[in-house]
Amino acid sequence: MTAVEDPITTTAIGTPMKRREDPKLLAGEGKYVDDIHVVGQLWMGMVRSPLAHARITSIDTSAAEAAEGVHSVLTGPQLQEMGLWLAPLPCAWPVTEDMVNPPHYPTAIDEVHHVGEIVAVVLADSRYGAADAAEQVIVDYEPLDAVASIAAARDGSATAHSEHETNKAFHWPLVPDPDALEAAFANPAHHVKANFVQQRLIPAAMEPRGVLAVPSPMGGDVTLYSATQVPHILKVMIAATTGIPESKIRVVAPAVGGGFGAKLNINPDEILAVTLANRLGRAVRWTESRSEAAFSTHQGRGQLQTIELAADADGKLQGVRVHIDADMGAYMMLITPGVPLLGSFLYTGVYDVPAFGFTCDGYFTNLTPTDAYRGAGRPEASYAIERAMDILAAQVGIGPDEIRRRNYLAGGEYFENLEVPSTLVFDSGHYGPNLDRALELADYDGLRAEQARRRAAGESKQLGIGMVTYVEICGLAPSRALGGLSYGAGGWEHATVRLLPTGKAEVVSGSTPHGQGHETTWSQIVADKLGIPPEDVTVLHSDTAISPLGLDTYGSRSLAVGGVAIAAACDKVVEKAKQIAAHQMEASADDLEFAGGMFSVSGSPDQAMPIQAIAFGAFTAHNLPDGMEPNLQEQVTFDPTNFVFPFGTHVCAVEIDEDTGAVELLSYVAVDDCGNQINPMIVEGQVHGGIVQGVAQALFEEACYDEDGNLTNPSMMDYLVPSAADVPSMVTDYTVTPSTSNPLGVKGAGEAGTISSAAAVMNAVVDALSPYGVVDMDMPATPQRVWRTINEAKGGQA
Amino acid sequence: MEVSVTVNGERRSADVEPRTLLVHFLRETLGLTGTNVGCDTSSCGACTIHVNGESAKSCTMFAVQADGAEITTIEGLASEDGELHPMQQAFMDCHGLQCGYCTPGMVMAATSLVAENPGGLDEAGVREGLEGNLCRCTGYHNIVKAVLSVGGAA
To answer: Which domain holds residue A630?
Structure first.
């Protein structure tokens, strides 16, 4: 039924093994960047613009320079004159040939383009000294009109960059068959047109970003410790940006405290730390404060979406047409313009849609740049189609479950390698049973009965039920596909697996964990493949000196690309070990079987050698086949031929107090399908966390800006990251539809929860408010917004 | 100013600037980097420790305010022979941590919460009791499970 070559029947894979990462993290031994100190280090402090758009007229550094413990104060123009870099910070994803990409240097030179942009840097011998000195730098600005929203950017009466005539950065279309699309919308029985706002979000990984650059002046090399998801990409980009030879750069991502996309960029502080450390011959460090992070780390989302559905009288989709205006912020960072494109392919969701069209306009604003945030384009897409499907269901007069059933790809039956109108080929899917299971677990009929009871009784606490069937595109990515989208790198992943003389294994992975438990998961794969205990496997990663090849962790790619590379490298190790075993046992390799770590001769079970003995034999090299290299080490760089497409159905219930507008999430059921699972405990943890991040977008979080481009809620006092008291426990279950894109049959689970939950919750909120005639409302559904919506709706009825 | 504290059973003294935050004193003066800093507004709880037996956010105290105090940090929770504290073990068993950054503060807050509720906690009690500690990875589900496994009502 599937292309899985190697059925998973062994012992470690598929078990909820406890994480080997945990004891040291639990004991406080996790070494994050801010925990690493070097004698003689200088603390960097940033002087940041308080204005969103302004011309710098003067900078007075004298008081700061005179302060005790201050090593130097360097303004943007001075840094530029020092020749520390060859090129601006990189944007690796020029989505169109004519994309506008204003130069983005680590510091502003004469004009600032968002609040928090760096205008000068202070170096001092203490944390507090650097902060004090930064306060003492006096900068005069001539304010310019700020572009503080997508609407203002479209309007264009002010431009975010003075030298630009418009704020538009690019126009990107994906309309595979324009005639078919036009025909679908010519005279549909049902036409839904909806506008959705994807508010800006602050990623807020619990560990703020930080850097420590340690130079070796005589050796000419530099080591950068950075709280990054992407040490390998960072190394390449430091070389390209600064001209420091790549061979002289080592990047280490030590313990990293969450990323969620916010740590996959190439940031001003990273370039400043490396270049200043090299120039000064002193280690340079910086850690963002939480309030600073709202400006020094990119934000997520920031889109205005218009989605149209054309459907026949039964609600069967005929076409989906989408336009989005995407807020780039002030600059193009590493993949800023590519984020909306990652979503573009998913606006038809899990549905059989004959005609599809998508266009995106990117706009500059004078706000913190946007870039990847958990899901990166895909939560936005999922939100739009799944909210719109509920609106269509209401128009057709059928339930949200029924509208989905009528439109599922392959009628909800199993499929594999199915081309969808957005030109992708979905690896595998089986949506019907997945929906059934979610409805059963949620007691959907019971919820509907309770909802009807409350409505009939006229209760003030309304019940709303929301559902979503999502699909995501992940396992980023086939390199050729990325090339076709003008992305500036590949999507492969590297693994090296070696057996040491004592029979222990080391696996070197280019994937870079920051909470996902890679060490545990990789050890499970290697243990089963080599037939050794998981505790005999050491996983090395996140340091370019140890793991020189890799493309890091984002886009739910680690297992579906990096894990597959590890499995393939193990297969090669076993193959080589078999040759040695055959030689030493004087048997034909074709007659050898390998199981449970033991090579044995078919039909002669007493003739056997454990793989550990082969490892020692490879080390001594006393008796190897002629010409064989004396090691037991193999490497694989795996470049997938297709993406993977996890899916699932989430059903939730909310209670809305019509007197206060408060929304309480009562229950949340998630039935996900990420193909085969290596460690179900870790998968479940990813699902939980992902769900709550989407719930946060639906109910709590929004980066709020005033019309001058000031962020009014940069601190955690004001930006509401939900606590344990704000969310319920969840019910999770799985269906298993193996991927056909890789031999492990695995998909991805890191972003799935976030891709589904915002729409599920908002579908529930709107469902609760539907008796008032409410058909949509914006996120976040705060008590104030809900209360106003109810009252406006009531007023409208009166 | 001279500050003397007993940290994890050991007497430690140092001369610090009066404005030194307790968390910076622990991390940078005493080298106890297990206690983390996640915000600058006393919102996230990553810096939670025990001061004289009660949980406290160490970013909200000056080191000088802790002069003479008995302090326990995450480094002092496991037994000397390396056995994890029951709360640490519960977090591991229940997968109550992912990136681990909020974990030291979360564990310290949780042990304190359980100690303050000898009659046992229900789920709502755990959720409300941990309101001052933020986690971005776990969605709290498994943290709550872990704490209930140690301090849940019978």
So the answer is: 492-638
